[in-house]
Amino acid sequence: MKNYIRRVVLSGLTALFCALPVLAQAPAEGGTASNQFSSQAFAFIAAGIGFAIAAGLAALGQSRVAAAACEGIARNPGAGARIQTAMILGLAFIETLVIFTLVIIFAKVTPPGL
Q1: How many Cβ atoms sit within 10 Å of the Cβ of residue 114?
Q2: Residue 114 pLDDT > 60, yes or no?
Q3: Rounded to an integer, what distance in angstroms lies between the CA atom of residue 55 and that of residue 45?
Q4: Rounded CA gap, 114 and 107, in Å?
Q5: DSSP 113
Q6: Of the candidates 67, 63, 59, 68, which has an alpha carbon nearest to the alpha carbon of residue 98?
């Protein structure tokens, strides 16, 4: 359990440090370096972290679906086709949620001029 917590903390710190270049943007027109930290920069960071969480949890869900399907097919090989169909449908729903998250991030974080 201790090793698991260490991995989660390290992953979180990695995500935060990868998002820091967003704060190094050039100041807005007529702005100075002192007001460089805008809400838009923090929106980019929040969007990146949110998408990372969504993608990570979706990957966890997909792995659980695949493991359960393999276990079901191993217990009852005759129902393999039905289990595979249900598994593919479940994986499509999980992946759709990640795509919706990506679309929402693009809609909310994209600058107005684009």
Answers
A1: 5
A2: no
A3: 15
A4: 11
A5: T
A6: 59
For 19, residues 6+ apart whose C-beta sits below 8 A from its C-beta are 44, 45, 48, 49
Which pLDDT value is given to residue 112?
61
Amino acid (one-letter) located at 41:
A
Could you give the 3-state DSSP secondary structure of residue 76?
A: coil
What pLDDT score was predicted for residue 20? Answer: 63
Contacts of 29 (CB under 8 A, 6+ apart): none
Sign of CA dihedral 103, 107, 111, 114: positive
Which of 15 and 44 is assigned the larger pLDDT? 44
Q: Could you report the per-residue pLDDT of 41-52, keeping only the tens digit for each?
A: 777 888 888 888
Within 10 A of 25 (CB to CB), how many other CB atoms are there?
Answer: 13
